[in-house]
Amino acid sequence: MEIRDFFDSAYSTPERYWWRQPNIYSLSPEDHAGSLMTQFILRHARHHGPGRALDVGSGEGADAIRLARLGWEVDAVELSGNGVRKIQKFAREAEVQLRIERGDLLTHPFRHGRYDMVICNGVLHYIQDKETACRRLQELTRPGGINAISLWSDYTPVPDCHRVVPTFPDRERGTVYQAYATWSKPLLYFERMRVEQGHHDMPGHLHSFIKMIAQNVYRPPEPRKSS
Ligand SMILES: C[S@@+](CC[C@H](N)C(=O)[O-])C[C@H]1O[C@@H](n2cnc3c(N)ncnc32)[C@H](O)[C@@H]1O
């Protein structure tokens, strides 16, 4: 099955597929105790904004809507047409303005300049060519801006229930980590064997993740250890 068809189907019902917990649009970091990434994004957005943000693979727009509620100017780009329609609906209900486009991270023209924050949350394990994907995220980031990235690591195998589409988890210090070798990393953690609670349409299963906030500030790469 194609990834776009998979998510078109996942987003075909009116209720949320992701983020069904209460307070999803809360701007208070304490309301997101299950996600260090969300806490970091909110704290950063409060202290360094309002600025311009791009949420790529934005799903149903939860990250994008939170940032817009903080006064940020937010663009959302999503592969699934049903996803785009749900972002439009949820943004309307949350009374925020977003610029929403349907597109693929690898080929979208991205015509609206560079951003202070680029979020790519849960997307890169659907993309095999991670070098190009990361380069595009980086080219879209202003000096000093941040990329907020979450993807599956190969610390645990892809659960059988997810094997309906091709997926490409990365090594914890693999292609994605290496692509950001010269960026500083205010947050990097490897979340292992986390019980999936974000969606409810599959039997119970686990994922392992790479979670990284990388900042477009030069940091010399660490010397390779000699063997
Ligand atoms: C796991 S969901 C995460 C959604 C959202 N970022 C969130 O955290 O709630 C992954 C999303 O990435 C989108 N996606 C997958 N491959 C993509 C690509 N190449 N370009 C843009 N979006 C993509 C899917 O359609 C899906 O909505």
TrEMBL record:
The keyword Methyltransferase applies. It is an enzyme of class 2 (transferase). It comes from the Bacteria. InterPro entries: Methyltransf_25 (IPR041698), SAM-dependent_MTases_sf (IPR029063). Residues 54-145 form the Methyltransferase domain. GO terms for biological process: methylation. One of its GO terms (molecular function) is 2-polyprenyl-6-hydroxyphenol methylase activity. Keywords: Methyltransferase, S-adenosyl-L-methionine, Transferase. Its EC number is 2.1.1.222, 2.1.1.64. The keyword Iron does not apply. PANTHER family: METHYLTRANSFERASE (PTHR43464), UBIQUINONE BIOSYNTHESIS O-METHYLTRANSFERASE, MITOCHONDRIAL (PTHR43464:SF19). This is Class I SAM-dependent methyltransferase. It comes from Plantactinospora siamensis.
